[in-house]
User: Which sequence fits this backbone?
């Protein structure tokens, strides 16, 4: 029953130097996953509302232009793979590789947002015209906000990666977290695209 | 934080409690004091509501103000009193109970705490722009037409507090899973931690859905959309679904932490092992799960089709099973114990009896035919106060008395504590028991003006509520007397076995000066009754355990 080391010392180290001890990033990853569970439930709530309207209100749905959103979808989905290469790079202590792939990811994210702005600008209906329009803007807008957050997250990783040794094969919580968040945003988009545009 | 220094609890300056301090014990007390502050405000509003209802006419306040009073009362009591009070104990106790030196994310913890005063101030400031009037449920379309800015502040407040509670839940789960001392496996963990796991799961899964509803409601209010506005083609029922998907689980978010408290208090003060450790632990998770799938029992009168009513009726009644398991286990724990009838145990027993009544009227309400009869009457008001006041609040006071010696290092004043209990128990039953009868006779809730035939019972309620209000005085006296001239509590005045009692009272800044040792399960009372008062030093306890075998 006796133990010589305890969490007492371990956690004290965590506060002194959050990034240096490999035992701890685990906690933060775990915390991030729980956070994403919560985020998923917000989207689930919005999707549920959308689906109830769709199933209870006659001629609720309106036709949507598909070209731009389809291109956007392809860009966003492939950016997840691009980003993953960045993570693999840093695992091999390759900071340049991390910067390259995360840079491309950021660019793709920005293109996605640009596409969304273009789409909004050419929309035939506004926010308050009908319930479908309100749902459309609320859902895609809320998702766009998340893309923006993910983009800022990616840029923050890029910014920090400039400091020598900030990320390494042994310590790269920020990289992994940004990647997980981006995958999350990506998966939500796939569901959203299916529900709002295709269904 | 440096290791070698041996700080003691006295080292905290009082000013630390007004800073962005990341010590979970400071944060726990910050939560507790803040929530009590809001309790007194919410209570004052309730007294105004009851004063208005002392006579059938709306003569004390105008009907608009009356609407604001009960709306703010409900909102404050739920979001700024009971929920944060649960978080208060979770923050204070979880790391101590599992032998950790802090929460997993101390800074996140401080952020979550400071969102409480911000949200509270936003909500209270709505009185200056016309406070919300649509009840704590804020159903549209009423909430869309009864005062825009007050309603918007209400939404903002709830979004902030909801985020805070999600951040808290992330912290609790991570801490419980990742930071227990190595010898403590999940089945030797105190039941309070189990209760907080179940609570946190609910928070993570349901609070975000409320956020979704509130975001859409805010759009309707500020941007002119019509998600929930029938005149624009929207559907208020969708709001009800989203709202109750959170708010039904929310009743368990409000009461599960206090189930945990009861599981700690009863064995200690009756000197017996808890009966059915695993049954209590798992039934909490079962309640969480069932809690997530029964929300539409609040919508039996919203045009819900019959087959759906059947589903929600059956699943709701099922919740009585795990709850019953807990109640029976607690009674079995008390049975034949050496009860020490101090304030902590009195409040715990008060909890058991009142919560039982609340639970039973809950099963009645789960029956759709009965619910349709008493929907939106005082029967419902009586029911949920038995659960929230008789349940959560009684257990909360039990927790305050039980852990007061640990938090302050002093003993509270037992005489005033018992007086507090007596007045609370009498006042509580006098206030809320007649409401059941009023409701079955047809008195609507949320009205300032009522039929004169209900007057005498209403006056009983009102007098009861004054007794309740006065009962806070002996409480404060007991607390203050304890601080001023209470005797020193020592490490372990209750001779309890959970880890938080192994460290000094109040605990040092690092929580434990020595590595805490698990020398017994959390509830192994009476196994060797001669050595029970071995509360003072770990060495002694270990020696005894070695002797026993
Ligand atoms: C001094 C103690 C209390 C008194 C006298 C009291 C009284 C009342 C009354 C008379 C109402 C009904 C208003 C109406 O429907 O017209 C009410 C509503 C409510 N109370 Fe209390 N209450 C007390 C404590 C509490 C506590 C401790 C909680 C929760 C922890 C609570 C939560 C609520 C809620 C959620 C409502 C519903 C508000 C609404 O309809 O929007 N109350 N209270
Ligand atoms: Cu419910």
Assistant:
């Amino acid at each position: 029953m006796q133990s010589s080391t305890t969490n007492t010392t371990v956690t004290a180290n965590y506060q002194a130097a959050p990034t240096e001890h490999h035992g701890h990033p685990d906690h933060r990853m775990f915390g991030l996953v729980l956070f994403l569970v919560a985020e998923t439930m917000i989207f689930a709530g919005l999707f549920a509302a959308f689906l109830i309207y769709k199933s209870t209100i006659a001629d609720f749905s309106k036709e949507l232009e598909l070209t731009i959103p389809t291109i956007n979808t392809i860009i966003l989905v492939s950016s997840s793979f691009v980003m993953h290469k960045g993570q693999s790079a840093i695992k091999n202590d390759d900071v340049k590789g991390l910067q390259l792939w995360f840079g491309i990811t950021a660019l793709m994210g920005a293109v996605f947002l640009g596409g969304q702005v273009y789409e909004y600008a050419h929309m035939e209906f506004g926010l308050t015209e009908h319930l479908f329009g309100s749902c459309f803007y609320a859902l895609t807008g809320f998702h766009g906000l998340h893309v923006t957050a993910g983009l800022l997250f990616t840029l923050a990783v890029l910014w920090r990666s400039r400091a020598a040794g900030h990320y390494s094969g042994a310590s790269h919580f920020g990289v992994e977290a940004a990647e997980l968040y981006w995958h999350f945003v990506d998966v939500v988009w796939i569901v959203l695209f299916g529900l709002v545009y295709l269904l | 934080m440096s290791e070698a220094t041996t700080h003691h609890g006295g080292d905290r300056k009082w000013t630390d409690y007004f800073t962005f301090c990341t010590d979970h014990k400071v944060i726990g007390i910050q939560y507790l004091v803040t929530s009590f502050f809001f309790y007194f405000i919410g209570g004052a509003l309730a007294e105004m509501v009851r004063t208005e209802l002392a006579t059938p006419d709306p003569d004390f306040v105008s009907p608009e103000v009356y609407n604001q009073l009960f709306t703010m009362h409900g909102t404050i009591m739920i979001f700024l009193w009971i929920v944060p009070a649960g978080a208060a104990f979770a923050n204070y106790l979880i790391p101590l109970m599992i032998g950790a030196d802090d929460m997993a994310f101390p800074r996140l913890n401080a952020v979550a705490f400071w969102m409480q005063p911000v949200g509270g101030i936003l909500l209270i400031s709505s009185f200056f722009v016309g406070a919300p009037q649509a009840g704590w449920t804020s159903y549209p379309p009423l909430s869309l037409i009864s005062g825009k800015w007050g309603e918007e502040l209400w939404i903002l407040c709830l979004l902030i507090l909801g985020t805070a509670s999600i951040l808290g839940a992330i912290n609790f789960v991570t801490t419980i899973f990742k930071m227990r001392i190595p010898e403590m496996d999940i089945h030797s963990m105190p039941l309070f931690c189990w209760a907080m796991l179940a609570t946190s799961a609910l928070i993570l899964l349901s609070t975000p859905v409320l956020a979704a509803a509130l975001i859409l409601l805010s759009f309707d209010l500020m941007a002119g959309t019509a998600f929930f506005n029938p005149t624009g083609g929207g559907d208020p029922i969708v709001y009800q679904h989203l709202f109750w998907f959170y708010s039904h689980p929310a009743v368990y978010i409000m009461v599960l932490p206090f189930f945990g408290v009861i599981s700690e208090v009863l064995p200690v003060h009756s000197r017996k092992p808890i009966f059915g450790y695993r049954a209590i632990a798992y039934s909490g998770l079962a309640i969480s799960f069932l809690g997530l799938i029964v929300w539409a029992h609040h919508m039996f009168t919203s045009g819900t089709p019959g087959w759906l009513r059947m589903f929600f009726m059956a699943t709701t009644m099922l919740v009585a099973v795990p709850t019953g398991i807990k109640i029976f286990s607690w009674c079995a724990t008390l049975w034949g114990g050496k009860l020490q009838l101090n304030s902590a145990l009195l409040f715990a027993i008060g909890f058991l009896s009142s919560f039982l009544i609340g639970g039973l009227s809950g099963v009645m309400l789960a029956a759709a035919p009965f619910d349709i009869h008493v929907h939106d009457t005082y029967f419902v008001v009586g029911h949920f106060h038995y659960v929230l006041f008789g349940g959560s609040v009684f257990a909360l006071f039990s927790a305050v008395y039980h852990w007061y010696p640990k938090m302050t290092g002093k003993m509270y004043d037992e005489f005033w504590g018992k007086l507090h209990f007596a007045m609370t128990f009498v006042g509580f039953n006098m206030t809320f028991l007649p409401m059941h009868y009023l409701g079955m006779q047809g008195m609507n809730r949320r009205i300032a003006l009522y039929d004169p035939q209900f007057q005498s019972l209403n006056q009983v309620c009102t007098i009861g509520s004054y007794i309740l209000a006065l009962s806070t005085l002996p409480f404060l006296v007991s607390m203050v007397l304890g601080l001023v001239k209470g005797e020193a509590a020592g490490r372990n005045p209750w001779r309890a076995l959970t880890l938080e009692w192994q460290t000094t009272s109040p605990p040092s800044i690092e929580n434990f000066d020595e590595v805490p040792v698990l020398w017994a399960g959390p509830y192994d009372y009476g196994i060797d009754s001669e050595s029970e008062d071995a509360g003072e030093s770990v060495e002694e306890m270990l020696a005894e355990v070695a002797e026993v075998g």
User: Anything to note?
Assistant: The CA atoms of residues 36 and 112 of chain A lie 21 Å apart. Chain A is about 75% helix and 0% strand.
